[in-house]
Amino acid sequence: MTSQQLEERSQQLEARVAILETELAQLKQMLSGVLEKKVPWWLKVAGSFEDDLTFDEAVRFGQEWRRSAE
To answer: Which of 13, 27, 39, 55 could be stapled to 49 by a disulfide with Cβ–Cβ 3.0 to 4.6 Å?
Structure first.
């Protein structure tokens, strides 16, 4: 491999690394908002079944089944 070919490969590699660094910085910026605002999963679903008649009925069926299993 000639010194000119090595120089070209080196420049190509430097360009690829620069692109990767830019993309990594963009990904970090995108994720920073998500990671900083991490909310426990249970807070996301807490209260989501409020005033849901189907859920209330499922709870009642579960209570009945537990009572019958005693």
So the answer is: 55
